[in-house]
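task queued by scheduler; priority normal; single chain, no ligands, no partner chains; default sampling; output format set to C-alpha cells
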Amino acid sequence: KTVGSRITRRAVTTSLSISALSAMICTIVGAPVAWQISRMATGRRALWLALLNVAANFGGIGLAFAYLATLGRVGMVTLVLHGLGVAFSPPRPASFIGLSLAYQYVNIPLYILLTIPAMGVVRDEWWEAAQTSAATRGQFWRYVGLPLLTPFVAAGWLLIFTWSIGIYAIAYALAGEGAGFVINLLTLEPAVYGVLLLAWATFALLLYRVLLRRALRWF
C-alpha cells in the first residue's frame, strides 16, 4: 500500500528525474574536464585533484548554507544581479531546479575524479599511429577514442545517478522542516526509501560491473 501510494510514486519520479538530470550534466561538463586534467603536467594535475577532492567532500548542511548564501533570495549572486538591474528570480531551494543546481557542486567534482583514471586508456601513441595512417582527429575519436571511453563514461553516469538518488542531507537542509511536504523525494520518504534504494543499488552494481567488463575487453 505504501509503495503504491501517490506520494511514493511522485517521490520515485522526482528522485529519478533529478538524478538523471544531475548525471547528464555531470557527464556533459565532467567528461571533457576529466580529459583535459588527465593530459596536464603532474604538478598542475595534482593541484586540480586537490581542489576536486575538497569540493567532492563538501556537502550536507554546509553545502545547503553555501547554496543559500550564493543563490538564495538575499544570496551574493542574487544581490549582485539586482544591483546591476537584472530582474533575477532565484529558484526555490527545495524545487526541482534548486536541488539540481545544489547537487552539481558535489556531483561534478566527484564525476571528474571517478573518470580521470579512465581517460588514461586512450594513449597518445594511438593518436600518433592514426596520424601516420592519414586518419583525421574526427575519425580517431569515432573509431578509437569514443568506443574505448564510452563504457567508462557510462559507468560514471550510472554511479552519479545512483549517488544522487541517495542524497539526503542537502535535500533535507534546503527543504527545512516538513521537507516531505515541500518536495517528494525517496530520501524524504523513509517508509520506502530503504527497500527501493537497496534494490536499485544492487541492480546498479551489477550493471556497473557489466559496463566495466565491456570497457576492459580491449585490454
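post-processing summary
- Residues 6-38 form the longest helix (33 residues).
- The CA atoms of residues 73 and 90 lie 7 Å apart.
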